[in-house]
Design brief:
Layout (H helix, E strand, L loop, with lengths): L2 H7 L2 E3 L6 E3 L7 E2 L2 E2 L5 H16 L1
Antiparallel strand pairs: 1-2, 3-4
Length: 58
Amino acid sequence: MNAENKEANEVLLQCEVCLKEIPESTASNPEADEYVSHFCGLECYDVWREKDEKKEEG
């Protein structure tokens, strides 16, 4: 399989925060409660984590 076919068959996910499509192979996926969230990078993960912490406090 060449690189083009591999990319065409790659599963895309949406970042939990910015909704940007990202390849499953590069997504961070910290497990949260009873589901898995995917993030395009540490910045979006940090935004999500801060919102989640505030939700738990309030």
